[in-house]
Structure formats: structure tokens, C-alpha cells
């Protein structure tokens, strides 16, 4: 299939896109289990991962996507694998997982045990391989937002007795990391973040208050940290953010529209685009998009669900894009699934065939809307 040129004129964020993670293939699942049982070496596992990533990259190209990912095939989690490889962060088995609707993840957790830094991160090599097999197609790499280290991590108070110092070091580590990915060839980096969706939910904010956390304070600190991390980045590096309400085995955690965080996020976060979940009523309406005050900011509408395999009605999706265009000009809007297909290695409850059909569906709708 010929790739259709559907990129925006004002940026290299693409009219049709994807969030990033893909269902792990049977070959990946088998190899990771073999590695866990010491039946194959780390080198053998990586060789199998290389082959499967090359295969899915080619599949993404055939579908017509202009930004390809590695499907996060080398990761177990969308966030912990990256965060625990920062200097000063350790991963461990906590004994309890993250609670979703009637489901719970494995018990992985992270703790800040030393001063934060970014150095020799293994995902730099992961990106370099993706970039090689992507060829002339844009290699998009996804990492968790810096907010997630504070939101999901435990911080040793003896290491960081002062909160300001923690957030300052966190911003510096990410700034250094962003430059390292750029130096490795990355020109499209996506920050994944669930904390902002929690800050949209009254139920979740009450739980934060019960833990002694002030949601308004978190909004300010996270925004400040993010802007410090992305400041002075190269002009040809595009950075986006995906805001997620939870995605594990086709379940979710939080509900609530973007109104509580729309003004600081859309009006004051200095990035190039937002991937926003809009696949169900839990995400609210498009009214918060009135705070988009820049003509160079892309809004990627996640109107197609990644949680289930049934294809949405094309006309319904087109009508929703038209509704969103009342708040943001059509030329600034883009389309994608609402999330990845496998935020953890277990994956959502659909088949690989259904996954590719979903992505093909997004491409076809985009071609019809932005002719």
C-alpha cells in the first residue's frame, strides 16, 4: 500500500497517528518466558525482538502510518522499564499491583534511592535499532512523562528532603535524556502520562488528598517540571504527550473530562501536540479544547478505541471530528486510537488481526476527512 502524505503543514506530527504500544506477538511472549526461565540468553532474546520489531515496523508502513514504533516489544510496562533505568531509581516487586476496574497488574514498583540523572540508558539502543529499520519513515519513540516518577514512585526522604530539589533534578535528568535521544537520531518523542487524567477525576483527587497530596499543587509542580525538561530542545525535535485514563487488559482507572487541567495544559505546556482519549463518555466533551491558544499545537483525537476489536462507524467518527473543529481548527486536528494496544506486555482483549484493522481504519478515516 502506498503511504499517503497526510502530515500537517505546521509540524511533523502526522494527521493519522498511533499512541505506540502494540500487542506482543506469540514469538515475543515465548522468548520472554524462555529468558525468564534461563532457557535462552539475553542476546538470543534481543535477536528475536529485533526480528519481530522489523516485522511490525514493515506492517505499520504497509498500513500507511508515517510514524512507526517498536510496539514497546522490549518492555513489560509502558513506564517502569524506562523509569527504573534512570540513575537513582530502583525497581522492585512490591507485593501488590496497580488496581484497575476489577483487575490488578503485577506488583512492580519503583523507588528513588539516589540523586537523579540520565546516563547510559538502555532504551537509547532500542531507539537506534528502531530508527534503522524505520528507514525513510519517521521513528517515533515513547517514554513516560517525568510526572510519572513522582506520581508512581516512592521517594526516599533522606535523599530528597526538599521537594523543590527533587523536581529540579527530575527536570534536569529528563532534559539530558531528551538531548540524548535527539543525538541518537530521534526527531519525534512522545511523553506518556496518566497523572493528568487522575487530576481530572474528582474520585482520584479525593484519594490523593487522603494521601496528603494537594492536586492543585501537583498541577503546578508537574507543569513547571515538564516545561523545564523540554525547554531549549532542538527546533526539529517534536514532543507530544499522551494523556491516559488507564489501559490494562482493556480496563481503565479514572474518569472525567479535561476541564480541570485544560487551561494549564493546553495553554501553558510548551510541547507540540497532545494525544487525547475521546473514545467514550468518561473522557467528557470537546469544550476544554477552547484553551488551545496556539496555531502550531496539534490535537490528536483518540476517537477509535484500542480496548476492543469492533470497528467504529466511520460517519460517527467524522461527526465527532467535526464537533471538535468547533473549538480547534480542522487543520490542527489529527486522528489516532485512544491509547496503545498493550500498555503492559499482557495486552488488551483483542487479536493482532483486529489491532491492524483498527489502525487501518484510522488511516482510511483520516484520508476521507483531510483530503
TrEMBL record:
Broadest EC class assigned to this enzyme: transferase
GO molecular function: 5-methyltetrahydropteroyltriglutamate-homocysteine S-methyltransferase activity
GO biological process: methylation
Superkingdom, taxonomy of origin: Bacteria
Keywords: Methyltransferase, Transferase
Residues annotated as domain Cobalamin-independent methionine synthase MetE C-terminal/archaeal: 19-346
EC number per UniProt: 2.1.1.14
UniProt-recorded name of the protein: 5-methyltetrahydropteroyltriglutamate--homocysteine S-methyltransferase
Source organism of the structure: Paenibacillus terreus
Lineage, uppermost ranks: Bacteria, Bacillati, Bacillota, Bacilli, Bacillales
Amino acid at each position: 500500500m502506498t503511504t499517503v502524505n497526510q502530515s500537517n503543514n505546521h509540524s511533523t506530527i502526522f494527521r493519522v497517528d498511533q499512541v505506540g504500544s502494540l500487542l506482543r506477538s506469540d514469538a515475543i511472549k515465548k522468548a520472554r518466558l524462555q529468558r525468564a526461565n534461563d532457557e535462552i540468553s539475553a542476546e538470543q532474546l534481543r535477536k528475536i525482538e529485533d526480528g519481530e520489531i522489523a516485522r511490525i515496523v514493515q506492517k505499520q508502513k504497509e498500513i500507511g502510518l508515517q510514524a512507526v514504533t517498536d510496539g514497546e516489544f522490549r518492555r513489560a510496562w509502558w513506564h517502569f522499564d524506562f523509569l527504573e533505568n534512570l540513575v537513582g531509581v530502583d525497581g522492585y516487586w512490591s507485593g501488590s499491583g496497580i488496581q484497575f476496574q476489577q483487575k490488578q497488574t503485577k506488583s512492580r514498583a519503583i523507588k528513588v534511592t539516589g540523586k537523579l540523572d540520565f546516563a547510559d540508558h538502555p532504551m537509547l539502543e532500542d531507539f537506534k535499532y528502531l530508527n534503522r529499520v524505520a528507514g525513510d519513515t519517521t521513528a517515533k519513540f515513547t517514554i513516560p512523562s517525568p510526572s510519572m516518577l513522582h506520581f508512581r514512585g516512592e521517594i526516599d526522604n533522606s535523599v530528597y528532603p526538599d521537594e523543590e530539589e527533587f523536581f529540579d533534578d527530575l527536570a534536569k535528568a529528563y532534559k539530558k535524556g531528551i538531548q540524548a535521544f535527539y543525538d541518537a537520531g530521534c526527531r519525534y518523542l512522545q511523553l506518556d502520562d496518566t497523572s493528568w487524567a487522575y487530576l481530572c477525576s474528582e474520585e482520584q483527587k479525593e484519594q490523593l488528598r487522603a494521601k496528603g497530596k494537594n492536586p492543585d499543587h501537583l498541577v503546578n509542580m508537574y507543569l513547571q517540571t515538564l516545561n523545564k525538561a523540554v525547554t531549549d530542545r532542538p527546533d526539529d525535535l517534536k514532543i507530544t504527550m499522551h494523556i491516559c485514563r488507564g489501559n490494562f487488559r482493556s480496563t481503565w482507572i479514572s474518569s472525567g473530562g479535561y476541564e480541570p487541567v485544560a487551561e494549564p495544559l493546553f495553554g501553558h505546556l510548551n510541547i507540540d501536540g497532545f494525544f487525547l482519549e475521546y473514545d467514550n463518555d468518561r473522557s467528557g466533551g470537546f469544550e476544554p479544547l477552547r484553551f488551545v491558544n496556539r496555531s502550531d499545537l496539534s490535537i490528536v483525537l483518540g476517537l477509535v478505541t484500542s480496548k476492543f476489536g469492533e470497528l467504529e462507524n466511520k460517519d460517527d467518527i467524522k461527526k465527532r471530528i467535526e464537533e471538535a473543529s468547533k473549538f480547534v481548527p480542522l487543520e490542527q486536528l489529527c486522528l489516532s486510537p485512544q491509547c496503545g494496544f498493550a500498555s503492559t506486555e499482557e495486552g488488551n482483549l483483542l487479536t493482532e488481526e483486529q489491532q491492524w484493522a483498527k489502525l487501518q481504519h484510522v488511516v482510511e478515516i483520516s484520508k476521507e476527512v483531510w483530503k
